[in-house]
Design a protein that fits this description.
single chain; two-stranded antiparallel sheet; 20 helices; 9 strands
């Protein structure tokens, strides 16, 4: 029976990371910062040092908990000729390095974080460009807020989100229980202890070739990559998982690199890349798996360019006015529009569905929207309740307290005080309906802005 061909990482003596090999290689192709996170002894440092050896890089390995500024730049001394300061370099200083590993970054002293910030993000130190520096890597134990009772990493502090957001990919190292029998034997073997990885020409050539293709495609990124990332980021932000615009660009770069490495955009890789692109784990943040799965499903369908793609975009958008824009600009016909309206009204909360219907119904009745008669009726059923609100509001106070009006009245009055004209009348009508229906709005101002955004969009695009 022939021996299975080793993966790139297995050739380096690295085991347990096969699932993440495309993710790790993508970081080499993009040359964007990468971080490994895991418990002690899971091979984080060994992997990153082995990569530098296999690629033949001028490498520096710093322990962030012990590092001083002099370790990075050397010892300053006067430059008599230029009346300035030079730095006396040592074999450990960062000048000339092609790759840098910042180990134990979560144990870094606060006063050093700003210096690491510029090193990681800008490839600069003291404002001086590090022209040779290509790869910036880091490793850390789980943050102190994200640990089980089995092992405590006192001193491994949550990372500053601003620093974490400068890293592109976050790979979580697997522990013993997650290794296969073959991987356990390979990890346990004492043959590799203290052994340096030889320069791996196959890996070097592969990365160089893919890097060239990656750079060629950067200026004209495939639409599937852009559709996947924009839809996923929109869906996650809609689920209250903040993803910065900078993070979106890093995600697109990483996904493009994975596409180059594998020859096509593959769904399994896209889902794995999505999870590895989010920095929240570095400060102990927990993103529910079902939230990531839902964002991926919407994004993958969008990237696949199926006929239903516009519906995925509609549901991914968190704001009502953005949903309306998708309906107006991308809905292929009234039958599809009617079905989408029915699904949307059923999936949104009662108050958001009512606000959407209230804003859209006049345009729908005039035939200005790409929906059929059933869709118009669905909107009308909700909108008519808001338009014809007429009821007596009663409430109960605690104890012997007597209030002159409903507890929600003051909040409504504050919101209405800043509005004028038709917008104020529209908001008053909707808020009155909420009071009658005993709906407590957590962010009434945001919902009113979305409702007004729908009205403004209709006036602009369909001449209502």
């Amino acid at each position: 029976m022939p021996t299975p061909k080793l993966t790139y990482l297995q050739e380096l003596g690295v085991f347990g990371f096969d699932r993440f090999e495309t993710i790790i290689l993508a970081a080499l192709v993009t040359e964007d910062p990468m971080m490994l996170i895991g418990r002690s002894g899971t091979g984080k440092t060994f992997l990153l040092n082995s990569l530098s050896e296999a690629l033949g890089l001028e490498h520096r390995h710093y322990n962030a908990s012990l590092i001083s500024f002099d370790d990075l730049v050397g010892f300053p001394y006067p430059d008599a000729e230029n009346s300035g300061v030079k730095f006396l370099e040592t074999p450990a200083t960062v000048w000339g390095a092609e790759s840098v590993l910042i180990d134990e970054i979560s144990r870094c002293k606060p006063e050093h974080q700003n210096r690491l910030f510029s090193l990681v993000h800008e490839r600069r130190i003291q404002g001086i460009s590090l022209g040779n520096l290509r790869f910036r890597w880091a490793a850390m134990n789980p943050a102190s807020t994200d640990q089980s009772d089995l092992e405590s990493y006192t001193g491994s502090e949550p990372l500053d989100p601003a620093l974490a957001d400068r890293f592109s990919l976050f790979v979580q190292a697997v522990d013993w229980d997650d290794l296969s029998d073959q991987e356990r034997n390979a990890v346990t073997s004492p043959a590799g202890e203290g052994k340096l990885a030889a320069i791996n020409e196959r890996l070097k050539t592969h990365i160089q070739t893919c890097r060239l293709r990656f750079l060629q495609q950067l200026e004209h990124c495939p639409q599937g990559v852009l559709d996947y990332v924009t839809t996923a980021v929109t869906a996650l932000n809609g689920a209250r998982v903040r993803i910065s615009p900078r993070r979106a660009r890093l995600m697109a770069r990483s996904l493009l690199a994975a596409r180059v490495l594998q020859g096509s955009l593959q769904e399994k890789t896209a889902r794995l890349m999505l999870g590895c692109s989010l920095p929240h784990v570095t400060w102990g943040g927990d993103i529910a798996k079902n939230v990531l799965d839902a964002a991926h499903r919407l994004a993958w369908e969008a990237a696949s360019n199926t006929p239903e793609r516009w519906v995925d975009l509609l549901f991914a958008e968190p704001r009502l006015d953005r949903k309306l824009a998708v309906l107006i600009n991308q809905c292929p016909g009234p039958d599809e529009g009617t079905q989408a309206i029915a699904q949307l009204l059923a999936s949104e909360s009662r108050e958001r569905s009512a606000a959407f219907a209230f804003a859209l119904y006049p345009a729908a009745v005039m035939g200005k929207l790409p929906i059929g008669s059933e869709g118009v009726n669905d909107l009308g059923r909700l909108a008519s309740a808001v338009l014809s609100v007429d009821a007596e509001v009663t409430w109960t106070e605690r104890g012997n307290t007597v209030a002159p009006h409903h507890p929600g009245y003051d909040a409504c009055a504050r919101l209405l005080s800043d509005l004028r004209g038709a917008r104020a009348e529209r908001a008053k009508q909707f808020l009155s309906w909420c009071l009658v229906e005993q709906i407590s709005l957590v962010r009434a101002d945001e919902l009113e802005k979305e409702m007004d955004g729908c009205v403004r969009l209709l006036k602009k695009q369909v001449s209502v």
